[in-house]
Amino acid sequence: MFSCTLMIIAFIVLPLFEMVIQPTFEDMKAAATDSDVVRSIWLSIYTALSAALISFVLGTPFAYVLARKKFIGKKLLESIIDLPIMIPHPIVGIAILSIAGKNYWIGRMMQQIGIQIMGTVTGIIVVLTFVGVPFYVNTVRNGFEAIPERLENVSRSLGASQASTFIRITFPLAWRSMVVGFIMCTARAVSEFGAVVIIAYHPMIAPVMIYERFTAYGLKYSQPVAVWLIGVCLLLFLLLRVVSTPKDQNKGLGRN
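Structure (tokenized):
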């Protein structure tokens, strides 16, 4: 068991460790002061957070329905939610492009009201929401399912409305899973490349810039950008671990 654990940890850590140590300090400093690199990383974070916020607003009620309601076709609906995780992401880009183009009524309607998908920040956010929302919905659904329904029933029996019960009872008890889902969605969106490159090569997010610098200039110029992006992802997941750890356990870790 210990050897298997060691192999998995080495499998994940070794390539990333080599990636981090290979760029020199001068390479890292040059990347950090390169306005194009800073802009691309900032755009990655901004669009990923926007996708997570959209997932929070739209995905929270949906996750609650999946956790609490039983209806015909529920399993099919849950499988549809998982589709963006399973299908190759260039296909996601092509699928979104097929409804956002001039040949489809949704695309024509969006153009009439001034919404552009191709080559815009809006298009990037749409793609990142598509690939990130399953992580949010599944995480929050599990959080809702962990809350005993009897607490909501007691609230309703005392005269509270369903909305009041959700705000005063369910939401405070499920906030941790929402934060975890938000960070999971953000982290997934930050790393997206395949679907974004179909919809919006420019403006350039960090994964697209890494790809461009690798194909044009090689490892030396792509690695520093990748290291900075890995740092952002590491920060997000560290935040995920801290937030998802119960307070009592955090105190115990602090004492240790």
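The CA atoms of residues 119 and 201 lie 7 Å apart. The mean pLDDT is 87.
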